[in-house]
Design goal:
single chain, alpha/beta, Rossmann fold, Dihydrodipicolinate Reductase, domain 2, 2 domains, 8-stranded mixed beta sheet, 6-stranded parallel beta sheet, 14 strands, 24% strand
Length: 341
Amino acid sequence: MTHLRTAVIGVGHLGQHHARILRSLPGVELVGVSDANPARCAEVAANCGVPAFENFRELIDRVDAASIVVPTSLHFEVASEFLNAGKSVLVEKPLTADVAQANHLVELARRRGAILQVGHIERFNPVLHAVPQSNEPPRLIEARRVAPYSFRSTDISVVYDLMIHDLDIVLSLVGEPASRITATAWSVFGGLEDVATAHLSFPCGTEAHITASRADVHARREMTIRWPCSVCQLDFATRRSVTSVPTAAFHESTNLFINPPFAQMASLREKLRGTFFEVIEQDYSGGPELLALELEQFVTCVREHREPLVNGVRARDAVLLADSILRAARGLAPIGLVKAA
């Protein structure tokens, strides 16, 4: 499939950028856009030079694939109609806010032979390239993703809105479901939870502590990953990282670090960075737009019919973990965890 016909369903704050990028990709035709707000739909359609459709169903038979950027509460309805017709979809994160619906979409895509990609855009952040390859799982992962209130995504908790980015990354790093979860969450603005913190324990020994808030003063998106002797600090916002990895000299000299003679302390401090630990600072800023990378992969996966980086199964696992965290925070019984793909 060389020429790919696409549509964007939902052209609000984020959907307008899906439309802009798809319209610019080689070999991709943006057939039209649809939105529940007729004025907004007409505006974006005019900017892109394509027709506006009041009813998204009018686009199903006209396209090969669609970006679905409607509110989360509508993901299942819209995605299921495209998938049932055998059309591939990129659904913005989270896949759904309901585990049963997520499972249904995964199975529907499998049965219809359609690509199901989910918009966990941080997986395209180049700062993740700084994470060192290791044969052992991390010991501790700490993540903090906070921002001021945006008045968007109020139909879902902050766990599904912001924390799910880090849940998806943690699952990709650890490769198995959590075995124990404790969590606290509360509302600031009178709706669903705006602040949440969760502690996850994994069978392999990894512990993860994750905080998300949409009630902060300044935006921050940071993660620190620790192995027994290594540490990697990631700033997703600035796309900068600092990684510290022990050298051979460190492993050969570990007896020097416990109660060394006072006269050696200054020398040992000077040698920590460089001699005993290789410290690498990297700046990935100034690279391509992450959404463009994500949509380019979607187009490639549809054309070549191959699995995307975040397919339906991986996104479903993040939904299941988010659901378990919310249940823990609300004092409800968990519905069970599944193995991360």
